[in-house]
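Whiteboard transcription, Tuesday session. T.W. wrote the structure tokens on the left side:
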């Protein structure tokens, strides 16, 4: 019986290798489909399972690219370095070096922002809130959030080379109207209307008095008539001036008061001060 164990193991070894190869192929095909669909996180997990079942340089390259697409540049760099350390083939090294150079020259930026649908830009790239993400060249950059009826908000950031940066930005509060308008307007408005009515009344009285003065003048030749007409003329001039002043001031005050009472309130500003590369090779 003891001699059968090595023999049995020798027979089972090819079967186990075949099972591992089948599992590796199945995981690879699933990962490739997810990668093409842009589901990089799940693709990376399945590529890693495929590599664990059967090590393959092509699988490792695609794993590095899936990690890059998933916004995990540091993990992608580790796999690119591993590929370069394990293979001397010039074509394979060129593919790994291209991936590593891209990751080293860029950083993966995640911007979480508000309000929803506000425009967000990171340098020349842009999108919509509440979540924007993508690779940007390493170095200084400006994150800008623009929303309707709100002042734009800018934030200077430093994009790390070969790493990930997460930023949270919320645009300032929207400009809001003040309900009801200033409290002094009704009092001043009604006071102006009242004074205007008084001015109109005084002007009307002056007009009527001036008309009576004009009607009372006789124009007689006697000295008494002339003296009386002179006095009436003086009264007429005074009453006419009073009529003009009263009517003019009354109209102006009444119009100003009506404007204060019925003009709509205007708004018052409450202002606060390419991921991944094409799949490499075939399984």
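and on the right, the sequence the group agreed on:
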């Amino acid at each position: 019986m003891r001699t059968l164990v090595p023999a049995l193991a020798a027979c089972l070894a090819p079967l186990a290798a075949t099972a591992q190869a089948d599992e590796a192929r199945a995981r690879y095909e699933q990962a490739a489909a997810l990668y093409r669909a842009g589901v990089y996180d799940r693709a990376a997990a399945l590529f890693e399972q495929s590599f664990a079942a059967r090590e393959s340089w092509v699988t490792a390259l695609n794993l590095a690219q899936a990690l890059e697409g998933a916004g995990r540049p540091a993990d992608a760099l580790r796999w690119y370095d591993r590929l370069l350390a394990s293979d001397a083939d010039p074509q394979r090294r060129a593919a790994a070096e291209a991936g590593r150079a891209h990751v080293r020259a860029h950083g993966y930026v995640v911007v979480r922002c508000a309000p929803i649908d506000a425009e967000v830009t990171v340098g020349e790239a842009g999108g919509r809130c509440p979540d924007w993400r993508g690779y940007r060249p390493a170095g200084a950059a400006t994150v800008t959030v623009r929303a309707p009826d709100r002042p734009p908000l800018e934030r200077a950031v430093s994009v790390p080379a070969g790493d990930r940066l997460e930023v949270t930005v919320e645009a300032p509060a929207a400009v809001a109207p003040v309900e009801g308008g200033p409290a002094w307007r009704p009092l001043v408005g009604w006071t102006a209307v009242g004074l205007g009515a008084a001015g109109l009344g005084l002007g009307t009285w002056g007009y009527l008095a001036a008309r009576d003065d004009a009607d009372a003048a006789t124009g007689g030749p006697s000295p008494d008539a002339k003296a009386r007409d002179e006095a009436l003329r003086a009264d007429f001039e005074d009453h006419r001036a009073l009529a003009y002043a009263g009517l003019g001031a009354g109209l102006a005050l009444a119009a100003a008061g009506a404007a204060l009472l019925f003009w709509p309130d205007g708004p018052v500003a409450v202002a606060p001060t390419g991921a991944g590369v094409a799949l490499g090779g075939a399984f």
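Someone added at the bottom: The helical segments are 4-36, 40-53, 57-69, 73-86, 90-105, 184-216, 223-262.
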